[in-house]
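lol so apparently i was supposed to do this last week
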Amino acid sequence: MGILDNKVAVITGSSRGLGLGIAERYAAEGAAVIITSRSEKSVERAVNTLKQQGAKVAGIACDVGDLDSVKKLRDFTLDTFGSLDIWVNNAGLSGPYGPTADLSIESYEQVLDTNIYGTYYGSVIAVRHFVAQGSGKLINLLGRGDKGPVKYQNAYAPSKIWVRSFTLALAQEYADSGVGIFAFNPGLVETDMTQQVAAIQGYEAKLNPLRTIRRMWGNPPEVPAEKALWLASAATDGKTGIEVQVLDFPRVVRGALGEGLLRLTGKHNTVPLQIEVIPPAVP
Ligand SMILES: NC(=O)c1ccc[n+]([C@@H]2O[C@H](COP(=O)([O-])OP(=O)(O)OC[C@H]3O[C@@H](n4cnc5c(N)ncnc54)[C@H](OP(=O)(O)O)[C@@H]3O)[C@@H](O)[C@H]2O)c1
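anyway here it is w/ NAP bound
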């Protein structure tokens, strides 16, 4: 018996990284899960991985920044498993690190399309379905910048403050509907997003501290996935508007103390970081 038995969950951006970690955790607790991301091949690969783990799983490619694609995702879920109980708007893009005017308009828009429109479309589609059935859990992913400005991350950071504000307002609007609407910041997670980064030429060295920060505060996807499981479970029935921040004060202190100890003993290893250097956009 699992705590998500008979539940059906959609996790966007679940072909790898945190989304895959959440899908694996939900499936291990009995949920039927839908794997989805832009790349059909990656979806297929992740579906096969989950099948080998004995999961009830199906997959479909979907770009969350495209409304028709998100509607197809909902229809595919209902056609495949017959119901829909949990929707996690996890798909996210960080964009290149650097001064705002040096980013190409296209790369900026891609971040907003995924993080803002993707969350908006997914939320509206899920909330309409959940309100009609009088139950359901919507989980929207926060990230760095969800509480204020971050220099050189001026697409990602404001997109996440938007997600936070949008999600908490949505929770207030549907407070008496039986639907749980939650904002979830997973902290620093060891995924492609933090291991394969892009920077505008001349700004790549500014990303070097990420190696230390990851060593201090990074978690494998399994750690935040456990919190995402709690949010989706019956433990939050009757609740809404909860905001979870995995990287809380005790974790920050533990990470800093651990780093101090590693340095004292000379045991701090080099954390791999791939930086793609991008020329500044032509005016
Ligand atoms: N990693 C961290 O430290 C961290 C910290 C705070 C918050 N978060 C948040 O956690 C979420 C997951 O991050 P992650 O670290 O797991 O990222 P990741 O490793 O880069 O994985 C992102 C996933 O989203 C998919 N994706 C990207 N754009 C998409 C789109 N337009 N439509 C559909 N799928 C899309 C990717 O697959 P395709 O490329 O095939 O589409 C992939 O499956 C994001 O919302 C991120 O902002 C992460």
